[in-house]
Design a protein that fits this description.
Layout: H1 10-49, H2 52-55, H3 62-65
Amino acid sequence: MPNDFFEETRQTRLAFWGLGQMLKGAAYAAAFLAVIVLFVWAIYLIGLLLPEESRQTPSPYGALDAPLAEKGHALT
């Protein structure tokens, strides 16, 4: 009596193997995404622990918006 209870063909075995590999890759991708989400969430929680004054400071990008010279002065 053979051990092949379901009478799988080589094609069926290959299809199940391929499906298993794809599901394994999807699980790895889901775990990687979960780690990224947990990391961003941890940074957010740390940001909530900061004092309120730290959130009311002016933007550090304001210097990028400032003009290089006052009106009437030429940069040559």
